């Protein structure tokens, strides 16, 4: 078959894969918007109170009725749902009920802090996982057993408990780090560690087996016969094999970190989407809740796409398998 024919077929397959990913992304965003809309309605209380200062505002019945009519909250639930879908399709996230500012502006002010927190946490988790996986793989049975136990414990740690331990150790006892994240680099350390340590446990678990397999592969035996050290062998040849499943897992990990920001930003009093979401749920600010959840879903979809692309570039077998399908 000519190169022109193969190029055309490859382009059609690439277009098909991109179209399938876009369709999947649209479905995910629709599902997230739908679940969020009905989940918020299940919270006890009147959504109209958010426009009048929240549940403790003691608003009169007449004022609440005017708000319901003004914002369509007196309409059937299905009508409200369809109206919200139409607004979202048009790119209109609405106005915050409690802050009386556009939701897009609220997200713009808070999104950066959460993305910095999640990205830094993912980078630190990778470093911790790589160090732990390499150490436990090259150190014999005792190191492997100890490393496996550390990975299991790290992956099982609840974020709120880990944050409390880190604050007690590094802020209260040692006085090295502030217990409140004020936005500077030092204040970012404890929130990042709180999110990164559990993720590092998961990543190290998926890296271990490929590292062990790479160590016994023919090319590794040949390299060892040429005098290459075990550590050098793992770093030069094993990491590429170990990175593929870890990169695939990174998409899920980023979503986990975004959702974990709700707990971490609240504990460390750090501005961001997580803290904004908690405040919005407390006062039933439906537009802000929907905007925060949708923006988190968009970030998750984008990172998943990038992770799939990176995994494909790292593993030529996957690219060949796709091209041959």
Note down, in words, how this protein is organized.
The chain has 325 residues and is mostly helical. It is 79% helix and 0% strand. It has helices spanning 3-41, 61-71, 77-89, 103-138, 140-156, 159-173, 185-215, 218-225, 230-267, 273-282, 286-314, 316-324. Helix 4 runs antiparallel to helix 9 and helix 10 packs antiparallel against helix 11 (286-314).
What secondary-structure arrangement, pairings included, does this model have?
Elements: H1 3-41, H2 61-71, H3 77-89, H4 103-138, H5 140-156, H6 159-173, H7 185-215, H8 218-225, H9 230-267, H10 273-282, H11 286-314, H12 316-324
Helix pairs in contact: 1-11, 4-5, 4-7, 4-9, 4-11, 5-7, 6-7, 7-9, 9-10, 9-11, 10-11, 11-12
Overall pLDDT: 81
* SS summary, helix count: 12
Apparent shape: flat
Element pattern in H and E: HHHHHHHHHHHH
Radius of gyration: 24 Å
- Give the number of DSSP strands: 0
Report the portion of residues in β strands. under 5%
Oligomer: single chain
Uncertain stretches of 5 or more adjacent residues:
none
SS class: mainly alpha
Largest sheet: none
Distance between the termini: 16 Å
Question: Could you estimate the helical fraction of the residues in percent?
Answer: over 70%
Write a compact overview of the structure shown:
It contains twelve helices and no strands. By secondary structure, it is an all-alpha fold.
Keyword list:
mainly alpha, single chain, 79% helix
């Amino acid at each position: 078959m000519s190169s022109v024919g193969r190029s055309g077929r490859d382009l059609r397959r690439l277009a098909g894969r991109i179209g399938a990913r876009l369709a999947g992304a649209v479905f995910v965003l629709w599902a997230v918007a739908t679940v969020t809309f009905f989940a918020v309605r299940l919270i006890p209380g009147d959504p109209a109170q958010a426009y009048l200062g929240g549940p403790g505002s003691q608003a009169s019945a007449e004022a609440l009725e005017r708000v319901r009519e003004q914002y369509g909250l007196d309409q059937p639930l299905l009508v409200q749902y369809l109206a919200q879908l139409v607004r979202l399709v048009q790119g209109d996230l609405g106005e915050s009920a409690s802050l009386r500012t556009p939701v897009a502006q609220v997200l713009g002010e808070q999104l950066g802090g959460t993305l910095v927190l999640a990205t830094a946490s993912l980078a630190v988790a990778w470093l911790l996982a790589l160090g732990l996986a390499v150490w436990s793989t090259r150190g014999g049975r005792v190191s492997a057993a100890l490393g496996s136990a550390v990975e299991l414990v790290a992956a099982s740690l609840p974020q709120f408990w880990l944050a409390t331990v880190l604050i007690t150790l590094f802020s209260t006892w040692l006085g090295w780090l502030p217990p409140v994240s004020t936005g500077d680099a030092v204040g970012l350390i404890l929130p990042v560690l709180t999110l990164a340590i559990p993720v590092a446990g998961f990543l190290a678990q998926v890296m271990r087996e490929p590292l062990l397999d790479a160590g016994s592969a023919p090319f590794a035996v040949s390299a060892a016969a040429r005098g290459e050290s075990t550590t050098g062998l793992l770093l030069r040849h094993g990491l590429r094999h170990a990175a593929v499943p870890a990169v695939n897992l990174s998409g899920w990990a980023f979503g986990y970190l975004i959702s974990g920001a709700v707990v971490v930003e609240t504990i460390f009093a750090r501005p961001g989407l997580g803290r904004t979401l908690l405040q919005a749920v407390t006062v039933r600010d439906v537009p802000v809740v929907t905007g925060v959840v949708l923006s988190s879903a968009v970030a998750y979809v984008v990172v998943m796409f990038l992770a799939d692309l990176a995994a494909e570039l790292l593993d030529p077998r996957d690219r060949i398998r796709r091209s041959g399908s």
